[in-house]
Amino acid sequence: MTFEYRNKQLHAEDCAIRDLVAAHGTPLYVYSHATIAANWQRFADHWPAPHKLCYAVKANSNLAILNLLASLGAGFDIVSGGELARVLAAGGKAEDVVFSGVGKSRAEMVYALEQNIRCFNVESAAELERLNDVALELGVRAPVSLRVNPDVDAQTHPYIATGLKANKFGIAMKDARGVAERAANLPGIVLCGLDCHIGSQILKVSPFLDAADRMLALIRELREQGIEIDHLDMGGGIGIPYQQEDAADVSGYLQALRKRAEAVGGLTLLLEPGRAIVGNAGVLVTEVEYYKPGVDKNFLLVDAGMNDLIRPALYQAYHAIQPVKQSAEDANLVDVVGPVCETGDFFGHARHLAAQEGDLLAIMNAGAYGFTMSSNYNTRPRAAEIMVAGSDVHVIRQREQLEDLWKGEQLMEKLR
Ligand code: LLP
Description:
By secondary structure, the chain is α/β, with parallel strands linked by helices. Helix content is 29%, strand content 25%. The chain contains twelve helices and 21 strands. The strands form three sheets. Strands 4, 14, 15, 16, 17, 18, 19, 20 and 21 form a nine-stranded mixed sheet that branches. An eight-stranded parallel β-barrel has the order 5-6-7-8-9-11-12-13, surrounded by four helices. Strands 1-2-3 form a three-stranded antiparallel sheet. Helix 5 (106-115) crosses helix 6 and helix 8 (206-224) runs parallel beside helix 9. Bound molecules: ligand LLP.
């Protein structure tokens, strides 16, 4: 365990969170270097070359985290030109980058082609045509994987399920053969793979293997038609326990996948894990501003808000909330809420906590889709981010200053 109590004080590796707050304030994201590295290793152990792991940058795109993962041999799954620029700024290699996303612009295509990325994960026939045009204009050929929607139910929250035919993502199974044929014949395209991504926060292995079976059957069919496919990218989606669920069987999944692919033969496998690498490696630390007894409920008002961590508000996501200092006092039943002017601004309902004004709380498992989904709503500067490695502390993002928030804005010229 990375975040554990020593002498009743919650620590991140060898650092007391209380001390980190004394130096850096709240709200504060704190990440553990050792946890990220261990999570990575859990995948890498079962994924020998030429298979490749492409970390999903959207889960946490801080440069220091991308740099750490690049040093561990990660490739990257990006969904925008901005994420590509981040990866390059962090020392990642373009040749290890796959580019997902339903709405790639021409400018993003040009940029990614110029950088020589490994592959575009193309999500529609229209995108394929556009990419072909852009590549021909540049006098190059674009390496392409087709994202196919395998129509499996990932049994996760509807907002983060992506592999059903009702979703906007990917090319429908029934259209995949036609689009693959087209891709194989376009002069600006080199068709090299197929990919899918069925959703996020999936704890069972079976939906992944169902999807893999469908994708492998399609690869067989395409090969029979003379369309060669060299790689299969199964996307991300492996979940983490947020409230004592059984952890996903990562090694079982990866081994089963390799076995199935070996039976087909001649395939390099790619995965795009995000949450499983960084989710449990970060906490959001916040200070209690007020204890507010209410009519039906009591509230702990804290100084972090939905602008810092939007997952509870957006997905009714559960995050454990722990006191930074363990106390023997009686716990109250409280809703933990932020200062933002929205009823949805909460971190937890009906929690048992003994905290008082001035106490610190840690919102657990906040390493994935925490900071990257944060905003400046209510003109709130975004939190600082700290990376802890043993007893070393690195500020990997400074707290935003108010002036940063209106940079680029200007007053209107005087109206006539
Ligand atoms: N690959 C593709 C094409 C994706 O769309 C995603 C995530 C991933 C990989 C990484 O998935 P992961 O391994 O992290 O599950 N904001 C939501 C999650 C949205 C996921 C979107 N796509 C949340 O906070 O739960």
